[in-house]
Amino acid sequence: MNQFNRTLVCLEGFALVVAGVIVLAAASGGLNTSELQGIPWSQSAIVWIQGQMTAQSAVVIGSSIGMALLGLGLLYVQFSRPDVEDSLLLDRGPKGQTSVSVEGLRRLAEQVIGPIPGVHRVLARAINRRGSVQFRCRIEVLPESSVPELQDEVRGRLAAAIQNHIGQAEAETRIDIHCRVRTHELSRRRVQ
Q1: Which end of the chain has fewer CB atoms < 10 Å from its terminal CB, N or C?
Q2: Per residue in 112-171, pLDDT tens?
Q3: Is the dihedral of CA 99, 103, 108, 109 positive or negative?
Q4: Which residues of 117-151 are buried (b: 16+ CB within 10 A; e: fewer)?
Q5: In the chain, domain spans
Q6: pTM of the prediction?
Q7: How would you class 67 by CB atoms within 10 Å of its CB: exposed for 0-12, middle for 13-18, buried for 19 or more?
């Protein structure tokens, strides 16, 4: 999610919290129409909310609490997620900074893993999590391949390539591998 979308979701969450608190304050009688004279439609909305309290007080209070909790939930989700960036910052010095594209690291992983004997197809995903790289590789292997041997070969080659490319130690790189055996799908002809 880019920064603009994240900002919009945060604003929506904040608006829900504020609206929920205002409705709850108006429903409980703690808010007068004279206190909100500068806000358009506020006086008529508060009078309407207080009018609803006679018949459906539990519904109004419950919905206002629900709105506030929904807003708090949106804010929590936005701020509790780890930042996933599209580039990995390698060096920040007095002469400038050096960064590597995460998309480029993904392509590097696919180029390194693809030629390994026994690999039919590979789809890699690279994720930058606070300065360390995580790879998720989906590998389609040939039926005659040994997955444990292939796993060691993939991890070794990819770790060496990443060490060579960005100079990041193997301890800072996580490689998750999911293998699937390639099956020969038979096409059936329909005889007429």
Answers
A1: C
A2: 999 988 888 888 888 887 767 788 888 888 888 888 888 888 888 888 888 888 776 654
A3: positive
A4: ebbeebebebbbeeeebebbbebebeeebeeeebb
A5: 3-80, 85-181
A6: 0.51
A7: buried
Q: Angle of helix 3-27 relative to helix 42-80, nearest 10 degrees?
A: 140
Pairing of strands 96-101, 132-141: unpaired
Check if the beta carbon of residue 73 is closer than 8 Å to that of residue 114.
no
pLDDT in tens, 61-109: 777 778 788 888 877 887 776 555 677 777 667 777 777 888 888 899 8
Residue count of the chain, please give it. Answer: 192
Q: Give the angle subtended at the CA of 45 by the CAs of 41 and 47, to the nearest 5°.
A: 125
Token pair for 87: 């580039």
CA distance 110 to 98: 23
Mind listing the pLDDT tens digit for each residue in 12-37? 888 888 877 777 776 666 666 566 66
Correct CATH for 85-181 of 3.30.499.10, 3.30.70.1350, 1.10.1370.40, 3.40.980.10: 3.30.70.1350
Cβ neighbourhood burial of 12 (10 Å; 0-12, 13-18, 19+)? middle
